[in-house]
């Protein structure tokens, strides 16, 4: 994949913004019983029928309708969006928390389906598929030498639970082909990436989004950590674009006392709905720290706001995204959907954390996060532009601000060893790093075959071999980001990605968090 270096920041921020637009919707039930109340509202359908029947040339009215919907929603707000069928299937699946398939992480490498790693305890792992395998055929469908889109690949590997598929595999490490029969099963999509101890008494939970299964995953992780001796807890919501409101509320309830306000919403009619904590909280006394950054949005901000406004814990990091709008989903028969803003939500002190926008899909709104690099906010606390007129007080008298995200109690700047390239951190967490590490392992996977975790990390960090190779890899893909001034940061993420592909997700976080700036800061405070 080639990406010109001058466009790389645009790709990064476009991906982040889209993730927040998709992930930042809240859990209100779908409504499909809307009625046309006036003749004027039938004009669009009448016009489309007229074009379909009478227009001189052949046209695709579905495409016209999509553009019409996009244009209508474009007059509203940045978070009212149309999601086409192909994207809606993937998004819905992600938010559901599982799917039926064979259970592999893969990507197209040199026109072949390369297995990065089979998912732990998945049908593929149980059937004997290994990292580095290439899928040549799925049943009789050729899977190599073709430019197949990911959705086509997914569709072929998915199916009904219990159904079988025969995969023809090329195993490079053994230089042979083999056929493996795999019985499809339910594959969980984790929303809690890690649950581990930072020290003997401090637990850590990383939540990547709020899906249907997030609360259950969170409680499983919390219970395990408490059994291991955790008395304090760090909840990492960095880069979490949101998801289901109810999941965030349920997690907040675990930390708040009975009848403490978690969040409230207000619609166009002025109707207010308040949600309070219950008596069932399981962690109402232990110390709590919540980590946020500029990409923490929506449901993440509800959880962080509830903790902050009730004086329940400490918010650490950088100002969050600032998304305080509530969406309701309308599903269409073709599999597409519209998410329409139907209310605003407010934190317990009464503040709206929605950042300013003009009507429509405001270009400045989507670029606001990027502007934080330019104005110095991600490096200096004094550069945070919190509206001084929107001050609120917590029960203990602390000042908090509305009008543009959650401002942390403890500010930690963007992590860079030296230098001033803000895109380095995002690059290290992108797919580029994962693809690079896979290709390095693919050249000689046996070199790591009998090494322990500690030995593998030592091998990777012994020289600058992989650092230099990664630098060349970026240049080959036309990404010209200067890495030399951030060598230790890059090497840390390199060894972490090797650990993820060779071992598991917890090992990745074990390495990444060891020298993480926010973690180092809070371990002195927790």
TrEMBL record:
Question: Which residue windows are transmembrane per the record?
Answer: 7-28
Q: Residues in domain PDZ?
A: 88-184
Cited Pfam families: PDZ_2 (PF13180), Peptidase_S41 (PF03572)
Q: Which family does it belong to?
A: Belongs to the peptidase S41A family.
Q: What is this protein called?
A: Carboxyl-terminal processing protease
Q: Which biological processes are named by the entry's GO terms?
A: proteolysis; signal transduction
Q: Name one GO cellular component term.
A: outer membrane-bounded periplasmic space
Top-rank taxon: Bacteria
**Record PROSITE patterns:** PDZ
What would you give as a GO molecular function for this chain, any one?
endopeptidase activity
Q: Does the keyword Transferase apply?
A: no
Taxon lineage: Bacteria, Pseudomonadati, Bacteroidota, Flavobacteriia, Flavobacteriales
What are the entry keywords? Hydrolase, Membrane, Protease, Serine protease, Transmembrane, Transmembrane helix
């Amino acid at each position: 994949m080639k990406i010109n270096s001058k466009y790389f920041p645009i790709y990064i921020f476009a991906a982040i913004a889209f993730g927040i637009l998709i992930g930042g919707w809240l859990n209100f039930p779908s409504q499909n019983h809307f009625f046309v109340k006036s003749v004027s509202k039938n004009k669009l359908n009448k016009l489309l029928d007229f074009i379909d029947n009478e227009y001189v040339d052949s046209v695709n009215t579905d495409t016209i309708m999509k553009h019409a919907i996009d244009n209508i929603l474009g007059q509203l707000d940045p978070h009212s969006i149309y999601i086409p069928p192909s994207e809606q299937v993937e998004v819905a699946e992600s938010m559901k928390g599982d799917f039926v398939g064979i259970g592999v992480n893969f990507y197209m490498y040199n026109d072949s389906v390369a297995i990065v790693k089979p998912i732990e305890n998945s049908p593929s792992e149980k059937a004997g598929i290994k990292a580095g395998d290439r899928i040549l055929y799925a049943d009789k469908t050729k899977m190599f030498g073709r430019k197949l889109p990911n959705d086509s690949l997914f569709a072929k590997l998915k199916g009904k639970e219990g159904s079988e598929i025969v995969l023809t595999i090329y195993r490079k490490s053994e230089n042979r082909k083999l056929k493996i029969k795999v019985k499809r099963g339910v594959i969980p999509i984790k929303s809690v990436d890690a649950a581990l101890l930072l020290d003997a008494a401090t637990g850590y939970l990383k939540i990547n989004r709020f899906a249907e299964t997030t609360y259950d995953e969170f409680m499983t992780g919390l219970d395990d950590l408490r059994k291991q001796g955790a008395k304090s807890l760090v909840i990492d919501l960095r880069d979490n674009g949101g998801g289901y409101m109810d999941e965030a509320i349920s997690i907040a309830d675990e930390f708040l006392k009975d009848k403490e306000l978690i969040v409230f919403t207000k619609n166009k009619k002025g109707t207010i709905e308040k949600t309070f904590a219950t008596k069932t909280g399981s962690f109402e006394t232990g110390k709590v720290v919540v980590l946020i950054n500029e990409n923490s949005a929506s449901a993440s901000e509800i959880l962080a706001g509830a903790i902050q406004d009730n004086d329940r814990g400490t918010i650490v990091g950088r100002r969050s995204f600032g998304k305080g709008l509530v969406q309701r989903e309308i599903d269409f028969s073709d599999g597409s959907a519209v998410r329409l803003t139907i209310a605003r939500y407010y934190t317990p002190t009464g503040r709206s954390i929605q950042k300013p926008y003009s009507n429509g899909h405001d270009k400045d709104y989507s670029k606001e996060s990027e502007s934080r690099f330019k104005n110095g906010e991600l490096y200096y606390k004094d550069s945070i532009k919190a509206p001084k007129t929107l001050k609120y007080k917590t029960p203990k008298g602390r000042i908090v601000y509305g009008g543009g995200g959650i401002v942390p109690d403890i500010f930690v700047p963007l992590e860079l060893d030296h230098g001033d390239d803000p895109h380095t951190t995002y690059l290290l967490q992108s797919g580029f790093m994962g693809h690079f590490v896979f290709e390095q392992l693919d050249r000689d996977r046996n070199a790591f075959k009998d090494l322990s975790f500690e030995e593998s990390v030592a091998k990777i960090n012994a020289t600058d071999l992989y650092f230099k190779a990664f630098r060349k890899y970026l240049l080959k893909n036309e990404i010209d980001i200067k890495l030399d001034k951030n060598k230790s940061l890059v090497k840390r993420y390199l060894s972490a990605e090797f650990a993820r592909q060779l071992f598991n997700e917890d090992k990745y976080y074990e390495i990444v968090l060891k020298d993480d700036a926010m973690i180092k800061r809070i371990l002195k405070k927790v």
